[in-house]
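Tokens in:
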């Protein structure tokens, strides 16, 4: 997500429907949840401070490479739709 946002893509949240628990007891303990959140935070921090590779910089929205990719993808989709 960090890479997509830094490349100029739009990142949105999409709501989901959640069901009520069936077992009434979570599988992870509070300690495990804390470890998981700490690891996720560390990964997010590292992703934010990491330098973006030049290959990705050349493929951000608005660049010629990105426009060419969009056109090729649209052509492939059109071909598949006309085949079916």
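Residues out:
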């Amino acid at each position: 997500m960090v890479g997509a946002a830094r490349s100029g893509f739009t990142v949105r949240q999409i709501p989901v429907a959640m069901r009520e628990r069936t077992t009434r007891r979570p599988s992870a303990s509070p300690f495990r949840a804390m470890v998981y959140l700490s690891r996720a935070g560390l990964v997010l921090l590292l992703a934010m401070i990491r330098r973006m590779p030049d290959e990705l910089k050349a493929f951000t929205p608005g660049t010629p490479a990105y426009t060419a990719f969009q056109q090729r993808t649209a052509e492939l989709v059109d071909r598949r739709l006309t085949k079916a």
